[in-house]
Specification:
The chain is 39% helix and 26% strand. With 292 residues, it is α+β, with helices and mostly antiparallel strands. It is elongated and about 90 Å long. It starts with a strand and ends in an 8-residue tail after the last helix.
Length: 292
């Protein structure tokens, strides 16, 4: 069996165009015609929301599934056209991929090509597809979510009988807004945000912190309410990503308005702080004392 050159391009779902956060959701693989061998086009696409929602909680599931379905349909048509041309040998996987989904500035974007040479084209396609796509299925199966990070804090407050009713709060700045999922007020807003950094790679970990740093920067200009931000950070399950995790913590600490950053192991320290704030608030609003 002769060795054949091939190329491939990965389809990425870019959740945030500004920060560049992405997850691989498809691949197009192409081996040009060679001698009596016809050109080969292989593709695979992932549209299971379960594998992506832990990474991007605000994903529009209907729009995403519809977009992937459209690309899959187009891929079948284009593959038949290319493979029917027995002499087709020009171009590469990305050129073929762009026939399936033209570059239009949307959240679905093709990567630059990767290349190689292989004896068994189908075996090589399966190997690359597994490396580029299936890794997300394995890594997201038991991934810790933001809510998982918050749960021990909430339970500790319940155990201590601290009756704070947290609520979602939108802080408005002159140029942007930001929503905190767990907030309460005693003079100023105390806004708590659990952030799981149990993500798939180092860049996504740092990008999540950068996004929140950007949020705080934008609402810090002309904020509608006085607020204090607190972040509770969940560690990555992959120890190889700890360097990126610690970098993310420093990014958060450097954000405007001096947010406090706690790690999962600091839950008791955080709960002590919340309990003290709540007791001080309760004392301040007792009859005969001025309210905060």
């Amino acid at each position: 069996m002769s060795r054949r050159p091939y190329s491939y391009s990965v389809l990425r779902y870019v959740h945030d165009i500004v920060t560049g956060e992405f997850v691989n959701v498809g691949i197009v693989f192409f081996a040009p015609g060679q001698g009596v061998d016809a050109p080969i086009v292989r593709s695979e696409f992932k549209e299971r929301i379960k594998r992506i929602r832990p990474l991007f909680y605000d994903l529009d599931r209907a729009a995403f599934a519809s977009a992937i379905s459209a690309v899959r349909r187009a891929s079948k048509v284009v593959a038949k056209q290319v493979e029917a041309d027995l002499l087709f040998s020009s171009g590469d996987a990305r050129a073929i991929a762009l026939r399936m989904l033209p570059h239009d500035g949307s959240s679905l974007q093709w990567s630059e090509i990767g290349t190689g040479i292989a004896k068994d084209i189908d075996k090589e396609f399966n190997r690359i597809a597994d490396r580029m796509l299936s890794i997300y299925d394995r890594r997201t199966e038991n991934r810790k979510t933001d809510e998982d990070v918050w749960r021990p804090v909430r339970q500790a407050l319940v155990d201590r009988k601290v009756p704070i009713e947290f609520e979602s709060k939108v802080i408005r700045g002159s140029v942007d807004t930001i929503e905190f999922t767990h907030s309460w007020k005693n003079g100023r807003i105390h806004a708590y945000e659990p952030l799981s950094f149990d993500l798939v790679d180092a860049e996504n970990i740092k990008n999540k912190a950068r996004r929140w740093m950007g949020h705080l920067s934008s609402v810090n200009i002309g904020a509608s309410d006085e607020f204090k931000a607190y972040f509770i950070a969940g560690r990555p399950s992959d120890e190889r990503l700890m360097t990126a995790y610690h970098a993310a913590l420093e990014i958060l600490r450097a954000a405007p308005s001096a947010p406090e950053v706690y790690e999962e192991g600091d839950v008791e320290k955080l709960v002590n702080s919340i309990e003290d704030e709540f007791k001080a608030h309760q004392d301040a609003v007792k009859p005969g004392r001025a309210s905060l």
